[in-house]
Sequence to fold (241 residues):
Amino acid sequence: MFAIYKKEISSYFKTATGYIFLACALVISGFFFCMNTIMADKPTSDISSYFYIMVLLIVVLCPILTMRSFSEERKTKTEQLLLTSPVSIFSMVIGKFLSALTMFLIFLGITTIYYIPLFATVANGANSPNGAMLLGNMLALILVGMCFIAIGIFVSALTENMPAAYIITVAILLFLLLINAFNAYIGIEWIRVVLDWLSIYGRFNAFTHGIFDISALIYYLSITGVFLFLCERVFQMRRLG
Fold:
């Protein structure tokens, strides 16, 4: 697993993928952070709106990390080498997942620099930033990012076309993110309950208020586990077939 992880991490920086991801993510997130705090009409330390924008941002950015995970292996005909290597399929999937997650965590780690001017300047003329909210939002972004990466890796395992993997992943993530918006147009109670349960965005709210929601934690970990399991099943079937 470590060999796969190391290979994938290095490949992000041997190609343009890692640089494109970090550059786009940091420029866009930095812009929205400034617009929602320091450069707002009334400078504020309330960054809840920034984190909601961040969720939408990673819908677009996370598939950049995952679209090539297995699609490239199929396109370059190296997938069979992976399937016949002594590395287990589980280790292969987890290695690729952890490498993409590491890149995502690097991005989130760099964004913590944004909080320095927030505490140093904005807080002087506004209420002090809420530490619990900051931690809750960061934890929520990590959990949502894990889900998005697992879904993206699963989609990547289904096609050798990287642009298709990107577009399909974004479509699935948008659906899961905005699914509870359809509740207002559905009159059947049990369908509304199901849609609300599936919504990734709906479970984000508790963390943004600094509340640790154990049910949301279980949900995010479950979604991540399910899609990694499905990805592993795809390759088990290919190995047997």
Observations:
- The radius of gyration is 19 Å.
- The chain has one domain: 2-240.
